[in-house]
Amino acid sequence: MKNIPISAMIGLFFTALYFFIAIFAPWIAPYGMAEVAGDVWEPSSAKFLLGTDSIGRDLLTRMIYGGRTTIFIATMATILSFTTGATLGFLAAVSGGWIDQVLSRFVDLIMSIPSLIFALVVLSVMPVTIPVLILVMGLLDATRVFRLARAVAVDITVMDYVEAARLRGEKIVWIIFREILPNALSPLVAEMGLRFIFMVLFVSTLSFLGLGVQPPQADWGGIVKENKDGIVYGIPAALVPAFAIATLAISVNLVADWVLNRTTSLKGGRG
Amino acid sequence: MHPILKLVAQRLALSTVLLLAASVLIFVGTQILPGDVAQSILGQGATPENLANLREELGLNQPAISRYFSWLGDVLHGDLGTALTNGRDIAESLGYRLKNTLFLAFWAAIISVPLAIFLGLLAVRYKDRWPDKLISAVTLTSISIPEFLIGYVLMYFIAVKLGWFSSVAMINDSMSLGEKLNAIALPVMVLTLVVLAHMMRMTRAAILNVMQSAYVETAELKGLSSFDVIRKHAFPNAIAPIVNVVMLNLAYLVVGVVVIEVVFVYPGMGQYLVDHVSKRDVPVVQACGLIFAAVYIGLNMIADIVSILANPRLRHPK
To answer: B11 vs chain A: nearest CA distance in angstroms?
Structure first.
């Protein structure tokens, strides 16, 4: 961990900061999540650092709790998409034959519909709750992970040590988790950063459209939706989440870049 | 048959099959609810008679497969059904909105495509110097912010603070072209920014790839100016990947439009879809989903065909 480049350090620091705030939100936030503490759209002051929102709640508090919801959903959806996507991708690569064909063609099919449109179609009949959101987002995104995992694993399955494992009669589960997974981990971890950001953008977009996290629960996309009417009167409350999302996205990107460079550069090695 | 015609015909057939499969997926997507569509449309307070009536109206008493085929048959005849919420004919409302959406996407494409290619060339020309770094930094930032927030940021600074354009993009048939363009200036700007970033990065990568080849080195060694090298030698060879990039980004534009229309209250397809998703108006959602999927698949198909036509090696698959 000694020679981390400065950009990755900054990225790591801010990513950690965001997660820390998300986890300890109730202890950090100055007011209650749905507590009406002041007037409508008060400007920022010592009492309300970022001002208040459309019904007089403290905006900083809403942002902290919003970050908690957004980051939680994005993290869970990323985990779901990686476990399903990577497992199925490895399975397709190891088994080959018709299993590979069926899975790959099915993924092609799902990817032929834009994921936002498909999510909207599904959410039009599903009750919009957080578990449903995580499920829909995670499974739709699993298609992208599947493609990457399969592409990486296809190169690994032809290695001698995999052949050796097959010859000594290991089961497919062993081959996937003990032979392929450790060797495919680095590109997958780098991709995980990008998928996480995509999830943050995705859930914010859905909430903004009113089909994601439901009020009074706070989340970054929802904060924009609640405060968008203020824009016309010159009240910038709706723009605060833009700053939060952009800094989080850029810091995660910096970390992902570093992981990717480390794995592809010859000198860095696969430490 | 001519081999190229045959390839194009193959791609067309493949896309048709894909579109059919996508229609199945969209249909199934609205049926996977564990309970019952009628229940979720009417909510918990629905009386049993209302439920029974709605089930009858939606044909929910028939098996899913026969419902799918009757839906598909109607769609192929141009009949998209009627909206549950207001009983209007969907095809009629959609036609007008589709026109508006295409109008918006068209102008965004007209501006963003040449700009992206020019900036891509610029970034390659000044690779690793400040213009390249500046362009990369700006595009990285705009990729990291969701579309709707870019929309509000521009709305706040340009429409409200500077007062240049109107903050909502209402258009109707009685407006002249100039008035319409003025109304959609902001949404076009946002869409341009959104696709510009992706398109520029991919163009840059495509040209850089060509720049590393031997014939470009020769051109440099015989003393051509660097813009001539790019214009005469690198660009013609990079055209296939660039056209591909442009098509993929136009497909991306179609999705970006959905969110931007909601931000600027623009009377297009995206707004129509989002409105009816929250009203749980399943027939409208299915129709919109199908049209978006068709446009997306169509643009991807064109990208595919163009890259085959432009690259002689792909014309003769092994």
So the answer is: 14
